[in-house]
Amino acid sequence: MFLYRPVGLHELELIARSGFTAFPPRLPEQPIFYPVLNFEYAEKIAREWNTRSNSFAGFVLQFEVADDYLQKFTVQTVGSSICQELWIPAEELKEFNSHIQGKIQIKAAFYGEQFEGEVNPETNLPIALENWISS
Question: What is the biggest distance separating any 2 CA atoms in the chain, rounded to whole angstroms?
Fold first, then answer.
């Protein structure tokens, strides 16, 4: 099943450091990891929330996880019908990462008015991030 994850620039850099194969451990104040079930919901979060905080950039990631593994998690609807997530306990994230098939892909990028940095017009990615990707 394809899942999506809205992230800010810092989390994306950590994912890039993994070779786009894993999500970073959760912080102590983050008890769950929540991938979302559709692009539209991930896009809304990345565009409306991530672009207004921290790095003022939001990205939508897409990745695939084995269906049989995902069956152990209940779909959570947290608003309208498109707002569907899986809640992965933080202590299970390492196992979750081991079930990712292929690479985590960047599907969209959004920038807020206060974003500071240079964006490559060809890739729509921050040049600083491209340095992480290529290293």
Answer: 42
Q: Which of 31, 25, 14, 11 is nearest to 94 (CA)?
A: 25
φ, ψ (nearest 5 deg) of residue 23: -95, 145
Residues 78-114: pLDDT tens digits?
988 889 999 999 999 999 999 999 999 999 999 999 9
Please state, in angstroms and rounded to a whole number, the distance separating the CA atoms of residues 58 and 31: 21
Q: What is the pLDDT of residues 40-86, one digit of tens each?
A: 999 999 999 989 988 899 999 999 999 999 999 999 999 888 899 99
Q: Which letter, b or e, does each residue of 24-36 get, where b requires 16 or more Cβ atoms within 10 Å of its Cβ?
A: beeeeeeeebebb
Residue with tokens 């940095």: 117
SS3 content of the chain, % helix, strand, coil (to 5): 30, 30, 35
- What pTM did the predictor assign? 0.92
Query: What angle (nearest 5°) sits at the alpha carbon of residue 59, between those of residues 71 and 8?
Result: 95
